[in-house]
Specification:
There is one protein chain. The chain has about 450 residues and is mainly β. It has 2 domains: about 210 residues, no CATH class; about 170 residues, 7 Propeller (Methylamine Dehydrogenase, Chain H), CATH 2.130.10. The protein is about 0% helix and about 45% strand. The protein is built from 1 helix and 36 strands. It has a 5-stranded antiparallel sheet. Strands 5-4-3-36 form a 4-stranded antiparallel sheet, with no helix packed on it. Strand 33 and strand 34 form a beta hairpin. The radius of gyration is 21 Å and the shape is globular.
Length: about 450
Amino acid sequence: MNKNMSVLGSAALISALALTACGDDSGEVDEAEGDQVPTVDADGDNDAEDDHDYDEGDEAETVEPSDRPTHEVGGPEPRLVVTYDGGVAVLDGVSIEVLGDFETQGFVRVNKAGDGRHAFLTEGDSFRLIDPGAWGEPHGGHNHYYTTDPYLSDVTLDGDTPAHVVAHNGIGALFFDGTGQYHSIDLAELDVEADAIETIGDYETEGAHHGVAVVLEDGSRFETLEDRSGARFLDADGEEVARSQECPGVHGGASGPDGIIAVGCEDGVLVWNDSEFEKLSTGEDFSRIGNLFPAEGSPIFLGDYRTDPEEPMTSVALVNVETGEITTSDVGSPYNWRNLQRGPQGEALVLTEDGQLHIIDPGTGEHIDHIQILDEWTEPDEWQQPRPAIRSTGDLAYVTNPDNQQIHLVDLAEGEIIITGEVDFVPNEIIVLDGRPVEGVSPDYDEDHDH
């Protein structure tokens, strides 16, 4: 796969990537004169050292997972998983170099599995497991980090119209819209060498619909209703404990602190607070919040906000489940559901069609900064078509530019693009995994391991 890369030097990037576990941290990063550092030319030759074993002539799909070399590294090394028409690619999250490229069938989507390492492709009638090849393991008050070659497995969970993947404290829930069925899995047991994805629970909602479910450790569960009027909560024996039909057009879902589960509605947000449902209303007849984006430890969710079905969105919702308030912040230009993310301190990140990345204080709705990332662009008519998307980890944000076949790495602390990688495909969906251990998945998890 041919790729060009241009890089701007950044001390902030170096510090952001210098998070260390135990092991040798004496490696140095050399900068070229001025603001330029080594680039990758069209032949893929790099005048800097390249530690990756991937070669575009390799048939990565034929390699056995157990044959992949494993390397211990000094800290978390983010990997990107990017879909395109006919395939999926795994990229290094620092250099934006392609580490693996795999053919797929038809239109595919990608979701984080929720264990910090793996992802699921929705391909045809299957959730298909992919290992981007970066992970961490807790060990005695610190983490060890490792990398290997990416691998697209043949390990699948099959059903009619796979859709949402939701992870909650070590339990994954995979939802099939065509039947309304969902299955829970132990995220600690995901393995690309397994014969199949083993489920620990198999459930049915009241009927087929575009829905979402969350399964808790004790087997109790949250699920949306067949007519999409709301949701219900069931105990571990499958007995309904509570139901709310106050959420027309229910969509999406996100978890917050203290057992909070929230879903979007056409007039606000429906919240399960670990004991009962509470409806947070916008006060408008139509004000659809279709997707919610949480931030660790924060009671505030970022949501898209549409007040006219025929007009583009130009404001975002800030949903405070602690106070019950929903406020909005104007971004002055259209955006879509792939253009929202959260920053390192819970900031609301919004990429708009004027090419700007807005950084917003979620508590006040005030704009902290604006970074010009792209030229002006327009959302395509069909939702499957590629359009700019943003994903983030820590101080780093990744923005796709389908028109130019580029992926930009943005340093949020410095407010600038520090790397632009050019790829030979049109990027569509994107996720980023930094390999950090996840609570509920790693038995020795400690949130202070990396601090």
